[in-house]
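Notes from hallway chat w/ T.B., transcribed later so I don't forget. T.B. wanted the structure written out for a chain they're using in a teaching module, and asked if we could keep both sequence and structure tokens in one place. Agreed to drop them here.
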Amino acid sequence: MKKWIAIAIFLSMSGCAVSPEKEPDAEGLPTKPEGLESRVNRNTVIDEEVLYLLMAAELAGQRNQYHLAMDAYLQAAKRVDDPRIAERAVKIGLFLKDEQRTREALTVWLAKDGKNLAARKFAVLLAIKNSDQKAAVENLNAMLADDPAGFEAGVLEMTKLLEKEGRTQFTYDVLEELAVEHPTQASVFFLQAVLASVLQNNELAQQKVSQALLIQPDWNKAVILQAQLAGRSGDLVKARASLEKAVKAAPEDRLLRKMLLEVLVNGRDFDDAIKLCQSVLEDKPDDAETLFTLALIHMQQGQPDKAENVLEKLLSNPEWGGQASFYLGKIELEQQHPDKALTWFDRVGDGNYAFDADMAAVSLLMNQKRFEEIEARIKRMDNKYPEQHLRILMVKAELYNQLGNYQEAFDVLTQALKDMPDNREVLYARALVAERLDKLDVLESDLQKILDKKPDDVGALNALGYTLTDRTQRYEEAAKYLERALSLQPDEAVVIDSYGWLQFKLGKPERALEFLRRAYEKQPENEIAAHIAEVLWSLGEKKEAKELFDSVYKKSPDDEYLLEFKKRFLQNGQ
């Protein structure tokens, strides 16, 4: 499912007719002297000096002498009754970032063609860049009067450039003055809503779009923006109401129906979402995006058979077949059919889901301890996905870790840190491998580096606190880290287990047992079971400890924590 459709769709238009960031060219100015007459009005008398200025401007432009070209065009523009010469001067002035001469050329351009929208846009841009609110309002007023239908699009076109220069707030303030002068212009309030959303002021954006809809209730673009803003604030009820209203007004608009579908899915209104999917598919049975959404809904409802039926319809679609295969693999994996899942993952091919499918296949094989196959796949992935080099290195390190080749895993992660010395995941992974190699100094250094950057990293706090508890007698330091982790995530089983183990090391077995049992209830892992068994053993509750051990050992006879407990406490069949 795609994420919420971004409000930025309203700002994704191209820049102004001529971008001031681009180098001007000689287009429109002929290379022959006689052709220059076609650049000006036929009713305009061109004297020899003007012809000379135009030729000089052209030659200067060809030689990249833009300051000279600008001077020549500007002088010619003042003497010829043709706005196109002034336009040329404005464009070169913008490129040169010569605001004084650009304004001078723009004044000439507007004097000769006051209704030219391009000229007005340039005037607005310059005014806003120079924080000249009066001039900006004056020129926007002119745009609104001369082209009310194109006003909204014209302003949105300019906001993209102004946003890059950090002028969004000033642009909003200019529109605020315009809104006072034109209280019945819905487009002005709509534009303010868009700018307020860019400024991350969601409440103000919603207020402004509501004003636009009071003036023009059936304006679908504003209704869509209202729904997007509601979705951004988490108000899915309001988003749904807005989109349902828009769909009712324009039942044939498939984009609106898909947006409503997204809201329904995010709100977990699955029954209504399925009905809407079916209505879309009635009009277009092969709509791949809707079919895919329907399949995901069935998966979330725990209806894998229905999801499979829908996904299979997408297999022949070249654009959607890959992700359909990927999700069919996930369904088979959830149903404990690893071989079928692997077949589907391998069918994904080279599309957008290729890397995810290969990673899923490796993870599946890792759980089955099919290490030789994993090695071969990792080599292929290294060649196939050079841009995913870091993630593949992490997989390679995990493979070595699973094989017990801890030094190889450590070396791979150390190599990765040369390229990304501050990467949290690599630091954390190397710290865990360092513990296996008794490199506690490296473990502490790596975890401390994570905490220096993010003091509230619960994973690092827990790992460091537990290691200090289990492998050293620095219990006071361990307590500092574990108490912090527990305060941040009081319901996290592994943190509760670590804190319980600390209590045991501090000589408080009854208190330790309380925490360890709570952790085991939340997450019945073998390591936690081994901790409970050891505490029970220390309290003389050997029968209960052995019963707990036996119950988990039957399920996981190869688990390292259980084997360690057996070696230490159950020697000679005790």
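Follow-up for T.B.: The longest helix spans residues 48-62. Might be a good example for the class.
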